[in-house]
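Handoff note, outgoing to incoming analyst
You'll be picking up this chain. Sequence as last confirmed:
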Amino acid sequence: MDIILNGLGFGLLLCVLIGPVFFALLQNSVEKGFWPGFFMAVGIAISDASYIVVTYLGISQLVDNPSFNMWLGGIGGSIMLIFGIIYIAKPIPQKGLKQLHAEETKWFQQILKGFALNGINPFVLIFWIGIISKVTVDFQYSNSEAITFFSVLIATVFGVDVLKAYFATKLSQIVTPRFMKIMNRVVGIALILFSLRLFNFVLEGLGINLMG
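Most recent structure output, in case you need it:
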């Protein structure tokens, strides 16, 4: 149950990350309707799952090495800390979403669009390395537990993305600059707190414990 709740929690956290993919999904759904947005969400989920598989398989081979875990904790903590600061400080775009006439599009084009838009962003891979370091170093999940965690996480993100596509028009009115600023600060603070847990792991490995 703890694994499922952690997967759900991280999934919900990722859902409120307001970046290019967030806006692209809403804009696509506002312009073209629910189904193009749905299939774009499928492409985003496939891209995230691909990054998770590749990154986790590469890291999981080395988790029995204490020195590697310390390095991983330091790198993962740094990544989360940097992202946290970015999300707190990042400027907020002032222009809103614009509703256009619906266009007929093919489902595979939307899947490819979501996959490419999410996949070509190098920050996505870096961010997943941070999440996987949290799972490996802090949660210390086995392979089967990690599969459960990431399955719940991806399912949560996909489910919320589908809801975003469904309620795109209403969300485009809700997502004001003030709303985005609040969400970015919430996410930024959460990531900084996660980074501190990872840094504490590294300090414990050095014989220092600042968090009790």
